[in-house]
Amino acid sequence: MTGTIRHPTPRGIDTEIVTAGRHPAEQHGFVNPPVYRGSTVLYPDLATFDKRAMPYPYGRMGSPTTDSLEQAVTALEGGAGTVLAASGLSAIAIALQSVLGAGDHLLVTDSCYQPTRKFCTGVLARFGVAVDYYDPRIGAGIEALLRPATKAIFLESPGSQTFEIQDIPAIVGVARKRDLVTLIDNTWATPLFLKPLALGVDISIHAATKYIGGHSDVMLGTVTANARMWPQVRETWSLLGECAGPDVAWLGQRGIRTLAVRLARQMEAGIELARWLEGRPEVERVLHPALPSHPDHALWRRDFTGASSLFSIVLKPGPKAALAAFIDGLELFGLGASWGGYESLVLPFDPRGYRVATRWEAEGPAIRIHVGLEAMADLVADLEAAFARWRAAGGGA
User: Where in this protein does the record say N6-(pyridoxal phosphate)lysine is found (predicted)?
Assistant: First the structure.
């Protein structure tokens, strides 16, 4: 595990994605790093062992394979260092445990990824950390929620499933006045479309399972910290015994090399499909930050450089049978909980059961949509057939 970047010269983001963390001269000219599988590291002599004077003292502490992905993510995020985790949720857990201790108070956006909420209430609370949730649109008003024991603020922008955009600079400004730590789940935007550390956030987290992996075949997380928080993140990662396997790390660094071209295509396709859906009589609302109709579109334009292909729609009122008819007959849109791969997906959701700081109100069923790399005409045809089934089963239009 390392935070070293060996190519510090500023470069274009597309070039950085392709080159960061790659060192062909050190591996006999081969473009991609080899997969180092191992636990035991042999030391040449006792003096070296006593000082642990080896680049990789033990298999759990990293290898050239994990270095490649860590260095690439660190370069893209503009951080001081990155650690790899077994999943996005594991990365969130590492990041929060790097910051919090018994008696601390944590503020979390009410629009966070639901497993983040479960970790906070199911693990952090048992260890004496108090957790409150805040309206993702609170901005600088978050200052009214601070307590003497408040230690950190956890953001996710846009919000999971419901896609609220947070005023990151305003929240960071409040946090810095009180010397609080800010963390963000940056999975939706990837390091390509949002640079949280440049906006003052201390720790940026990714479920690299999603767009960084890009092929729906890997479970992986990353935690990148600025210079202020990097020592704590690195130490916590080490003490927790967390590590990502070499084959998983290799798949992650393979995926990241095509991130720019995949997201360019998927951003265009996502916006095109979202606009088409806005014109459908069966759709009440489209929740996509890149659309001018989104209530936080101005914030998205200010802080983001692009949009990924994940968004949601709210249908007109209709019975559960109509929703089942819509989803069950889909041919190209799979029904699945993950996203960020090359395939299109749908997932119905209803956050009313767990939101506590905000109230979710929807005219009809809500569906999260991930747009993959299929032909747009085929995706539209699949959805047109779905809407026909929806209407036939009593769904509104």
Answer: 210
Q: Are 247 and 199 spatial neighbours (Cβ–Cβ below 8 Å)?
A: no
Catalytic, 113? Answer yes
Strands 334-335 and 345-349: parallel
Specify the amino acid at residue 49: F
Report field, pTM of the whole predicted structure over 0.90: yes
Nearest to 253 by CA among 9, 8, 27: 27
Q: Do the bridges between strand 181-185 and strand 203-207 make them parallel or antiparallel, or are there none, so unpaired?
A: parallel
Please give the pLDDT value at position 173.
98
HSE toward the beta carbon, residue 183, CA cutoff 13 A: 29
Q: Is 211 designated active site?
A: no
What letter would DSSP give residue 281? T
* pLDDT 10s digits, 90-105: 999 999 999 999 999 9
Q: What is the pLDDT of residue 16?
A: 81
Map tokens 């601070």 to a residue. 146
115 by Cβ neighbours in 10 Å (0-12 / 13-18 / 19+) ranks as: middle
Q: What are phi and psi of 347, to 5 degrees?
A: -155, 115
Strand order of the sheet with strand 345-349?
283-287, 310-315, 366-370, 345-349, 334-335
Nearest to 385 by CA among 327, 320, 318: 327
pLDDT in the model for residue 10: 61
Say which of 67, 104, 110, 185 is annotated catalytic: 185
Phi-psi label, residue 90: left if phi above 0, alpha if psi -120 to 50, beta otherwise: alpha
185 has catalytic annotation: yes
Mapped onto helix, strand or coil, the DSSP state of residue 234 is helix
Report the largest interatomic distance among the alpha carbons of the chain, rounded to a whole angstrom: 78
Report, as ranges of residue numbers, the positions in the chain whose pLDDT lies below 50.
1-9
Active-site residue identified among 60, 178, 302, 320? 60
- Strands 81-85, 221-225: pairing is antiparallel
Q: Other C-beta atoms within 10 Å of 124: how many?
A: 20
Go through the chain and tell me how many residues it has.
Answer: 397
Domains of the chain: 13-257 (3.40.640.10), 260-392 (3.90.1150.10)
Q: Pull the structure tokens for residue 348.
A: 């119905």
Q: Which of 67, 104, 113, 285 is catalytic?
A: 113
